[in-house]
């Protein structure tokens, strides 16, 4: 041995019990087998070096000592000595098996001659036919037998079959355990185990035939299900089967069923009852029709009848993996031909997807609480999460796509990825996680060849598992941490894929609808409300033709999206808009993945595109905004503070005034789109939308003013005056709509010792620059800045000093100007100047003692004149949302009259908000509770209608935006945008007219007196 102390050497090799190992290394039988005289000799040293790479050096040494005791002095001594001492693959496999499986170590103690089988260099690549022939020969079946019948029968035959099985199992384990990449080897190992199980079933059936001389009456086929059917078996697992029988020629069906049941029973007994050699595994036929209560064997016709009439959803999921594993091949083919169409049409059953999802939850709920955090198979983030996810995707999409029907989980994941049903990255992650979980499961089961799926808790067992998984020197802590990370990752992927809203929606379609077959698709489009099915088919063809991954994903999405478009007001427009967005974004890596994988994005996109032309155009202009649809948080209004910080960052980086203004307008355009989408999806209220639109206008005004002031400061004269912008009208009331202008007043205050004329010229230049930067035509929407509410209107100076405003309002202001000032709100520029302006105009808009009777009469006269002169010719006064009876103007002027009369005495009335003013008037007893509610309802409804008219038509502004349309289809579209059921256009019209009449009655009493 080396110069290191023997005890330390053993610890370094990996022995957990070095004292016991020291004793074993002194065993005479072991020393004789190794050809050593003492534990310090070179053969022992070489053995220890070799044991450093096995899962458990302790268990390997114990097993090798036992084998040595069994073979020394026997004919097998040289064979075992050669295997144990000669460096090379055979020694590596032998020690790996002994260190990884005490059960296989026991087998070699009983049958040391089987060490010779470890010389096979490629047991994972052995054809299944070779393995089958090997096990049939073990029970004495001639190679040329047409129907295998064992000649070695009874206990001897059973033991021979089991020994041959264990020998082949040891070969597979040896190749598996010496591999440096367990995850890479896993598919080959699982397939080899499944082939071995199939061969054992064939040999067991041969034994059963020998036991029953009348076997020729029955043509029995054994169909593998579960992991056996998928060629992905564990080392130890129940082997799930279904037995199918047909009568042989000249025999009756009843006789065949009886004989077949005897054969199936004998087959199961050969695999699992007690005998000299250990049992293989239980043969589980509980997945058959009617479960354990049903007949053990059935004919193909009987199976078909059951599945057509009585089967449950989970039974079709089980049949997805059905595969012939033993017995009559022709009967198996008949069975598969009969079951296949039913399996791949099962998704059309009512609540198929929901039932599958509920079944997974039940399985999870039934996991004992004490095991939940240790379950590799059934628990959260376990193997069942992967398998249920893959199988549901296969069953939903597989009826129209045969390429994804593989019963093998890893192959199915690869096929789902290739077909675009799962993102490549997600599929890769899912496959790696599945391999890791299965490899851990294999190592756990291999240790004692017992069926287990629980991660151990004892440190020695965890350490052995970590070494078997090739995670040394990181240790078992790294194994546990990696397992936990995999659980989290699997669960995330399961919840993302298994609960996709596209799955139940796709399941509800017929096979033809899901496949987009032209005739069926055209008929469906016409039936669900498309006005131009031929045009829709052209869009569908453009989106889906070709063999690209993009086209494949579109073929998945469109069958469902077509139905979702039809739930909107204009499905044709929705499909056209979807094509526009897809043409823009289809080549990006995230767009189609988002629609396929998100829980809400595809449905929301369909709703927006088919319900609102304005929002559809907004998304088409900035397609990246589609990402908002996946998150409620992204649809929340940004607020002034957040937008102002963004504006500040933007201006800090900007060097060109025009480019900076364009970016500011782009910011406003983005917020218009965000607000529109949120309003269409009813993720926000009309009032919140007004505030969001106002916030965007506020920060853009402030940002552009900073640009204009910066230009003035850096000019030849420098800064000559302080400047402020006062919001008026709907901007001042924070009640902007999608087509609203920005009503403002410009005020300035010359700096000390500055020429007033020069200061005035600079202020006018700043104001004109603000209007120009926001109002000029360009790539981003303009914001018209309207200063017509200034003193003397359009004939007055564009900008006045604070003193000039004061003088004007004190000497010449008209009642309408006092009324307009009720909406005055500082919005941009010098804060101190703005506050002084507000303090100056407060006595004008909230006069002490209230507005005198003459002012009130003038306001009423102006209102009546406006109704008579400004209402567009030919428009029904009852349908004009702004100027009509009970419209916005009626309510706002009524609220403003109360403010003019009582604002000085009632602080709550000193607000720029119409709704807040009405509430304050109610609370002060100036407005009856019922009257206030009536006015509030009318104003809110009119505001909502003005918004949804823009959202429906896509046109912001213009006289048509203020009129409730007569067209039934338009009314229906507006009703849908307001969240009313389909076909509610007439109801909306009646509701609006009734609301207007009631509000007008209140206006007549309160405003006109």
User: How many DSSP-defined strands?
Assistant: 10
State the fourth-level CATH superfamily of the domain at 848-1006: Nucleotidyltransferases  domain 2
Find the structural class using helix and strand composition.
mainly alpha
As residue ranges, the low-confidence spans are: none
**Count of DSSP-assigned helices:** 45
Q: Which CATH first-tier class of the domain at 848-1006 would you pick? A: Mainly Alpha
What this model shows, in words?
Residues 1-502 are annotated as: Adenylyl removase. Residues 510-1009 are annotated as: Adenylyl transferase. It catalyses: [glutamine synthetase]-O(4)-(5'-adenylyl)-L-tyrosine + phosphate = [glutamine synthetase]-L-tyrosine + ADP; [glutamine synthetase]-L-tyrosine + ATP = [glutamine synthetase]-O(4)-(5'-adenylyl)-L-tyrosine + diphosphate. InterPro entries: GlnE (IPR023057), GlnE_rpt_dom (IPR005190), NT_sf (IPR043519), PII_UdlTrfase/GS_AdlTrfase (IPR013546). It is built from 45 helices and 10 strands. Strands 1, 2, 3, 4 and 5 form a 5-stranded mixed beta sheet that branches. Strands 6, 7, 8, 9 and 10 form a 5-stranded mixed beta sheet that branches. With 1009 residues, it is mainly alpha-helical. The mean pLDDT is 93. Among the domains are: 350-457 and 467-472, Up-down Bundle (Four Helix Bundle (Hemerythrin (Met), subunit A)); 689-845, 2-Layer Sandwich (Beta Polymerase, domain 2); 848-1006, Four Helix Bundle (Hemerythrin (Met), subunit A) (Up-down Bundle).
């Amino acid at each position: 041995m080396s110069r290191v102390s023997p005890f330390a050497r053993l610890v370094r090799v990996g022995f957990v019990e070095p004292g016991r190992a020291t004793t074993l290394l002194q065993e005479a039988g072991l020393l004789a087998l190794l050809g050593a005289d003492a534990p310090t000799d070179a053969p022992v040293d070489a053995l220890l070096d070799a044991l450093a790479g096995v899962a458990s050096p302790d268990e390997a040494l114990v097993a090798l000592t036992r084998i040595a005791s069994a073979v020394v002095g026997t004919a097998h001594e040289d064979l075992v000595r050669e295997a144990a001492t000669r460096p090379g693959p055979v020694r590596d496999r032998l020690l790996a098996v002994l260190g990884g499986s005490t059960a296989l170590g026991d087998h070699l103690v009983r049958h040391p001659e089987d060490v010779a089988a470890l010389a096979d260099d490629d047991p994972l690549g052995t054809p299944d036919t070779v393995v089958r022939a090997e096990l049939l020969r073990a029970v004495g079946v001639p190679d040329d037998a047409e129907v295998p019948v064992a000649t070695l029968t009874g206990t001897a035959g059973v033991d021979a079959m089991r020994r041959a099985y264990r020998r082949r199992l040891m070969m597979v384990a040896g190749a598996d355990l010496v591999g440096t990449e367990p995850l890479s080897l896993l598919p080959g190992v699982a397939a080899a185990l499944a082939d071995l199980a199939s061969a054992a079933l064939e040999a067991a059936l041969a034994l059963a035939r020998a036991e029953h001389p009348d076997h020729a009456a029955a043509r029995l086929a054994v169909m593998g299900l579960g992991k056996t059917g998928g060629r992905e078996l564990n080392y130890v697992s129940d082997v799930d089967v279904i037995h199918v029988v047909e009568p042989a020629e000249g025999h009756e069906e009843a006789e065949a069923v009886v004989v077949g049941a005897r054969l199936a029973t004998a087959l199961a007994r050969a695999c699992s009852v007690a005998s000299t050699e250990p049992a293989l595994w239980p043969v589980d036929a509980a997945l058959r029709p009617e479960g354990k209560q049903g007949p053990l064997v059935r004919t193909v016709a009987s199976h078909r009848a059951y599945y057509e009439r009585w089967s449950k959803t989970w039974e079709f999921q089980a049949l997805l993996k059905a595969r012939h594993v033993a017995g009559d091949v022709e009967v198996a083919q008949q069975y598969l031909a009969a079951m296949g169409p039913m399996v791949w049409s099962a998704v059309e059953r009512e609540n198929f997807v929901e039932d599958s999802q509920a079944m997974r939850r039940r399985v999870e709920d039934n996991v004992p609480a004490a095991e939940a955090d240790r379950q590799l198979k059934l628990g959260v983030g376990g193997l069942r999460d992967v398998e249920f996810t893959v199988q549901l995707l296969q069953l939903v999409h597989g009826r129209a796509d045969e390429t994804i029907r593989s019963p093998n989980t890893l192959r199915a994941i690869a096929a789902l990825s290739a077909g675009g049903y799962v993102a490549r990255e997600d599929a890769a992650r899912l496959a790696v996680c599945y391999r890791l979980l299965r490899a851990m499961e294999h190592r756990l089961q291999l240790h004692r060849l017992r069926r287990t799926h629980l991660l151990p808790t004892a440190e020695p067992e965890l350490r052995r598992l970590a070494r078997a998984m090739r995670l040394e020197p990181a240790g078992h802590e790294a194994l546990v941490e990696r397992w936990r990370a995999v659980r989290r990752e699997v669960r995330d992927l399961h919840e993302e894929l298994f609960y996709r809203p596209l799955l139940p929606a796709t399941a509800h379609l017929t096979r033809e609808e899901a496949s987009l077959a032209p005739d069926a698709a055209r008929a469906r489009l016409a039936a669900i409300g498309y006005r131009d099915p031929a045009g829709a088919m052209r869009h569908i063809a453009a989106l889906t033709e070709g063999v690209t991954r993009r086209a494949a994903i579109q073929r998945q999405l469109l069958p469902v999206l077509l139905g979702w478009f039809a739930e909107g007001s204009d499905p044709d427009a929705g499909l056209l808009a979807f094509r526009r967005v897809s043409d823009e974004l289809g080549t990006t890596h995230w767009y189609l993945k988002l629609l396929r994988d998100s829980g809400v994005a595809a449905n929301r996109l369909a709703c927006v595109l088919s319900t609102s032309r304005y929002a559809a155009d907004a998304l088409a202009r900035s397609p990246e905004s589609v990402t908002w649809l996946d998150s409620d948080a992204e649809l929340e209004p940004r607020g002034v503070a957040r937008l102002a910080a963004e504006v500040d960052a933007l201006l800090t980086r900007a060097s060109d005034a025009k480019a900076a203004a364009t970016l500011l307008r782009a910011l406003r355009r983005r917020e218009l789109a965000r607000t529109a989408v949120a309003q269409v999806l009813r993720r926000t209220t009309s009032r919140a939308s007004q505030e969001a639109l106002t916030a965007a206008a506020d920060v853009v005004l402030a940002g552009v003013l900073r640009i204009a002031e910066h230009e003035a400061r850096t000019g030849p004269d420098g800064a000559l005056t302080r400047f402020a912008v006062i919001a008026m009208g709907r901007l001042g009331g924070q009640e902007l709509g999608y087509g609203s202008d920005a009503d403002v007043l410009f005020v300035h205050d010359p700096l000390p010792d500055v020429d007033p004329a020069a200061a005035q010229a600079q202020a006018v230049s700043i104001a004109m620059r603000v209007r120009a930067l926001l109002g000029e035509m360009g790539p981003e929407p303009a914001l018209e800045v309207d200063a017509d509410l200034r003193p003397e209107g359009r004939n007055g100076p564009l900008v006045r000093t604070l003193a000039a405003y004061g003088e004007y309002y004190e000497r010449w202001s008209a009642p309408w100007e006092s009324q307009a000032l009720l909406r005055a709100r500082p919005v941009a520029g010098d804060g101190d100047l703005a506050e002084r302006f507000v303090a100056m105009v407060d006595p004008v808009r909230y006069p002490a003692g209230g507005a005198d009777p003459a002012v009130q009469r003038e306001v009423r006269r102006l209102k009546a004149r406006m109704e008579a002169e400004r209402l567009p010719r030919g428009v029904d006064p009852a349908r004009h949302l702004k100027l009509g009876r009970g419209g916005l103007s009626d309510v706002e002027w009524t609220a403003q009259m109360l403010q003019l009369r009582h604002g000085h005495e009632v602080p709550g009335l000193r607000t720029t908000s119409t709704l807040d003013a009405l509430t304050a008037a109610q609370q002060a007893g100036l407005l009856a509770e019922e009257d206030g509610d009536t006015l509030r309802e009318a104003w809110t409804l009119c505001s909502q209608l003005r918004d949804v008219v823009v959202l429906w038509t896509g046109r912001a502004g213009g006289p048509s935006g203020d009129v409730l349309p007569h067209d039934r289809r338009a009314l229906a579209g507006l009703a849908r945008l307001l969240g009313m059921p389909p076909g509610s256009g007439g109801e909306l019209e009646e509701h609006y007219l009734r609301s207007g009449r009631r509000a007008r009655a209140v206006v007549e009493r309160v405003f006109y007196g």
